[in-house]
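Contributing new complexes? Match this layout with phosphoric acid mono(formamide)ester.
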Amino acid sequence: MSNELKPNQLTEILVPPKGADTLHPKPGNLSEDNPVVLKHLRKLEGNSILTVRDLSREVVIELCKLAAILERFEIAPYHVLEGKIVTTAFFEASTRTRLSFESSVQRLGGSILSIPEGGVTGVKKGESLEDIGEMFNAYCDMVILRHTDTDSLERIQKYLRIPLINAGNGSGEHPTQALADWYALLKWRPSLADTKPAKKSEGLSLGILGTPGSMRAVKSFLLMSLLFKSKIRRVAVISEYADPFGADVIEDLERADIEYSVTNDIQKTLPTLDVVYMNSIAFLGESYKTLDSRYKIDKDSKLKKDAVILHPLARLEELSTTLDDTRHNLYFSQAHGAVFVRQALLSSIFGRLDRLPDAIPTVS
Ligand code: CP
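Output block (do not edit by hand):
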C-alpha cells in the first residue's frame, strides 16, 4: 500500500454549508508540524476509562492530536481495528455516543455488537449486570457501557476482564464526551495544548450553564478543564443551585487552586465568558430531569464577539437554533469530532497504534 496519506473525504461533508457562519476549526490547527507522542498513548493499552481521572493532560493532548490526523486523512484502508469486536451496551437512550463509537469502530475495520437498549438483553428477565459482564468476556474485546445507574460500572466490572469505557453512568461521568469537548477546544485554540502558562489576562474565562454535580457531561468537562488550569483564568458556574458541584468535584476544584464562582445572574456573567458550556438534561433517580432551564441563550444574548458555545447535546430550549449559523457555534464541530477522538482512544487501548500508516508524524 502506498505510504502517501489521502485526504479524508468525510471532512468535506463536515464543512458548514455555504452561508452558515458556524465555527469549523480545522484539524490541521492541531496536527501540522506537531508529531503525536506515542509514549503517552501507549500507556492506555488494555486500560478501562471510567472517569476523566483515568486520563492525564498529556494523554488528552496526544489523543486530540491523533484525532486531528484521523480527521484529516483517509485511515480506513489500514484496518486499524481489524479482528476486534466492541460491544456497545446502552441501557439508556443515546444518539451521539453509541452511534459515533460504532462509526469509529466500523470505519477502522472493527466489528460491533450493538445493544441499543437494555430491554433486548436478559435484564428484561431479571438477569444481573454482573452476569452480563461475565458473558461479554467471551463475546467481545471491549465493552462501552451507558447505564442509568451510577454504580453500574462497578457492577459490570465484577466479572469483566476486558476494557470497559464509561459512556455515561447516571449522574456520574461521561469521560469520552469530555474528550470530544476538549478536541473541539484544542482545534479552536491550539495554544491551549502548549505547556506555557497563560498570562492571567490571556487565560480563558470558562462559563458553565448547568449543574456539574447532577449532569455527567458537565462534570466530566469541568474535571478535564482542570487538567488545563494553567490556561484558565476562572470558572463561573451559572446554576439554579447554590451548591451545584457535589463533594467530589469541589475537592478537585479546591486542589486545582483555580478561581471559581457560582452565580444565578446570567445577564451579568455571560458577557464576560470566552467559553460557554451548557446543558439542561440530567438523569436523576429514575428519570430525565430538566435543570437550569430558565437560562436560555439565543443569537441576541450578550455574548463576547469571539465567545464559543459548547453543548454535549441533546438540547432543549436552553440553546436556540438561532445560534446554529453563527460564529459562536462550536457545538456541531464538537459532536462531529467525537468520531475521531474516539477512534484515537480505541486504537490506543487496543494497542493498534503500530498499524497506523508510517506517513503519520509520530515520535516514540
Ligand atoms: N452527548 C451525548 O452523550 O449525547 P447522546 O446522549 O446522544 O449520546
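Reviewers usually confirm one structural detail per submission. For this one: The longest helix spans residues 331-349.
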